[in-house]
Amino acid sequence: MTGNIVARRYAKALFAVAQASDKGAMTQYGEDLARLAGVLENAPELTKIFRNPIFGVEEKRGVIVSVLDKVAPCAMVRNFCLLLADKNRLAFLPEINASYSMLLDSAQGVLRGKLVTAVKLSDVVQKNVVDKLQSESGQKVILDYEVDQDIIGGLMLKIGDKVLDASIRAQLQILKENIKRGE
Question: For the sheet containing 154-159, what is the strand order?
């Protein structure tokens, strides 16, 4: 919980700096953070180093400098990462990236969601679903697609904190509950 608070605060601070800069800065910072988070995700030993109290700030700073040299982010994101190193907060980079992405999506009017179906949907059907959601919401919609045969049929849609469960599994569960209550 504390990590999320820390990550949100740093993400908000970087986002505020991006908003004060030119128009493309918000997207640029987001892309750079995403690349850094991707490196940490693909090399979990780096995150272990950043979380380990045995390593000092200077050692962690040296590690992040070598990562930054490979990723080559813009100067602001580089300085931001060095600040995180000085404050011993590098371990929060993936969470900061996630928080920053949410802020960026909100500012750009983007809704991200997940669509789960029992069978793989064709590209045409996926496009139709996205188009319908965009026309209903008035915002750009980006969906991740997942196949889960356990839902039997229908679909489950999650966008933000809203969930639409129109799966046969859910309908059977409701029917089961009604039978138990004698309705």
Answer: 140-147, 110-117, 154-159, 162-167
Q: What are phi and psi of 154, to 5 degrees?
A: 80, -150
Q: Which residues on neighbouring strands pair with residue 116, listed in sequence order?
A: 146, 156
Amino acid (1-letter code) at residue 79: N
What's the chain's average pLDDT? 90
Q: What is the pLDDT of residue 1?
A: 46
Quote the CA–CA distance of 133 and 142 in Å, as a whole number: 10
Contact 81, 64 (CB under 8 A): yes
Q: Which residues of the chain have pLDDT under 70?
A: 1-3, 183
Report d(CA 153, CA 103) in Å as an integer. Answer: 34
Residues with Cβ < 8 Å from 19, sequence gap 6 or more? 25, 26, 107
